[in-house]
C-alpha cells in the first residue's frame, strides 16, 4: 500500500473490541460510530468512542443504570407516600 497521510483512524474505546476504521478526508466515516460522554460519581467526564455493536450494548446498560438511579432518587418519596411532609 502506498503511503497515505491525513487519514483519520476510528477505533472503538471498549477494551478488547478492536473495531477500527480508516477514513480518508474525502470520505465520511460509517454512521455506526458514536461519541458518548459519561460522568462518574466524582463528576469526572469521560469521552468515549463506540462501534455500533458496543453502542447498542451501552444504551441498554445505561438505560438500566438510569432506571436504578431514578428508583434510588425517588425512594424517599415513594416510602413517604400518603404521609405528607
Ligand atoms: Zn466496539
Short description:
This protein has helices at 52-73, 75-79; strands at residues 8-11, 20-23, 34-39, 45-50.
Q: Can you tell me about this structure?
A:
This protein has 85 residues and is of the alpha+beta class. It has one domain. The chain is 32% helix and 24% strand. The protein has helices spanning 52-73, 75-79; strands at 8-11, 20-23, 34-39, 45-50. The strands form two sheets. It has a two-stranded antiparallel sheet. Strands 3-4 form a two-stranded antiparallel ribbon. Strand 3 (34-39) and strand 4 form a beta hairpin. The protein is elongated. It starts with 7 loop residues before the first strand and ends in a 6-residue tail after the last helix. 5% of the residues are buried. The model has no long low-confidence stretch (mean pLDDT 91). Bound molecules: zinc ion (ZN). Zinc ion is lined by residues 12, 14, 17, 19, 50-51, 53-54. Zinc ion binds at residues 12, 14, 17, 19, 50-51, 53-54.
Q: State the shape.
A: elongated
Number of strands: 4
The whole-number mean of residue pLDDT values reads 91
Number of domains: 1
Major sheet details? 2 strands, antiparallel
Bound molecules: zinc ion
Spans of 5+ residues with little confidence (pLDDT < 50)?
A: none
Going across the biggest sheet, name each strand in turn: 1-2
Strand content: 15-25%
**Helix and strand succession?**
EEEEHH
Q: Percent of residues in helical segments?
A: 25-40%
* Distance linking N and C termini: 72 Å
Tell me the Rg in angstroms: 20 Å
Structural class: alpha+beta
Q: Please give the count of helices.
A: 2
